[in-house]
Specification:
six-stranded mixed beta sheet; alpha/beta; 274 residues; binds 2'-monophosphoadenosine-5'-diphosphate; 36% helix
């Protein structure tokens, strides 16, 4: 990568940031499109996140992503928050305006839906209820996406019921908090918990009553085929892995900073996994 003095700059702020695949992902697109720009890993500790975000215009950055544990703090550090990010309660993408002001956006809901539509083109929001497992930060984006897509009923199950109730109150829409993870009658099943991730216990879920056409998706992508996805696949249910959510959520940020809308391709998936 050879940069000129006019190179467009962006990056990802996280703590730690070393595990982030975003530099690889954006670096691939920059290289492919021949853009004079760079996307850097920025290790920012929590006590300095507001300072680091506020420094973006002074450094000439076009913007940045923010990841764990900074997504809520970023909401407070920017000048404007777009309605989606406000509703979800987290910012993952910051865009520096021409006037140096900071706009906070959330592209996770977009990324979830784009990945679902890409991986399961047959999915129709109105096909029936969705069952969402978990009520953390990722679940907020997933539920907002499903509400906005027009899913008639979203069943929300979480170990800690109070978090599910807070999510439903904040996001609004046809959300029903359920106290079992019963899969009967669901058209779409989404795992947003960390269960099934490498190093975590598997998600213990009985898929017996799951309709054969129900789509099963997991936001965990390490491993790519989680125990849940393997089980669903063995029953013949269509599955969508979670890597695409990471890839698709990056598209709007890249476009805003570098002025070119990138595409998610099989080659990109392979590269990011490598
Ligand atoms: P993220 O931003 O990835 O969503 P998070 O906000 O920490 O991460 O949320 C993690 C989710 O996984 C939560 O829904 C959490 O359940 P609680 O709200 O009860 O904590 C869920 N989770 C994590 N470990 C779990 C476990 N061992 N059993 C059940 N749920 C678990």
């Amino acid at each position: 990568m050879i940069l000129s003095g006019k190179a467009k700059l962006a990056g990802v702020m996280g703590w730690p940031v070393s595990h982030s695949r975003s530099p690889r992902l954006h670096g691939y697109w920059l290289e492919q499109s021949g853009i004079d720009g760079a996307y850097l890993p920025l290790a920012v500790p929590p006590e300095r996140i507001a300072e680091a975000i506020r420094a973006l215009p002074a450094l000439g950055f076009r913007g940045a992503n923010v990841t764990v544990p900074h997504k809520e703090a970023a909401l407070r550090a920017v000048d404007r928050v777009d309605p989606v990010a406000r509703r979800i309660g987290a910012v993952n993408t910051i865009v520096v305006g021409e006037d140096g002001s900071l706009e906070g956006r959330n592209t996770d809901a977009y990324g979830f839906l784009a990945n679902l539509r890409d991986g399961a083109p047959e999915w129709r929001p109105e096909a029936g209820p969705a069952l969402v497992l978990g009520a953390g930060g990722a679940a907020r984006a997933v539920v907002a996406a499903l509400v906005d897509a027009g899913v008639p009923e979203i069943r929300l199950f979480n170990r800690t019921a109070a978090k599910a109730e807070a999510l439903a109150a904040d996001i609004g829409g046809p959300i029903r908090i359920v106290d079992t993870s019963d899969v009967a009658g669901t058209a779409l099943l989404v795992n947003t918990t960390s269960l099934g991730m490498a190093g975590q216990p598997p998600l213990d879920l009985d898929l017996t009553g799951l309709p054969p056409a129900a789509i099963v998706t997991d936001i965990v992508y390490t491993p790519l085929i989680t125990p849940l996805l393997a089980l669903a696949q063995a029953r013949g249910n269509p599955i969508v892995d979670g890597l695409g959510m990471l890839l698709h959520q990056a598209v709007p940020g890249f476009e805003a900073w570098f002025g070119h809308r990138p595409v998610v391709t099989p080659a990109l998936r392979t590269f990011v996994l490598g």
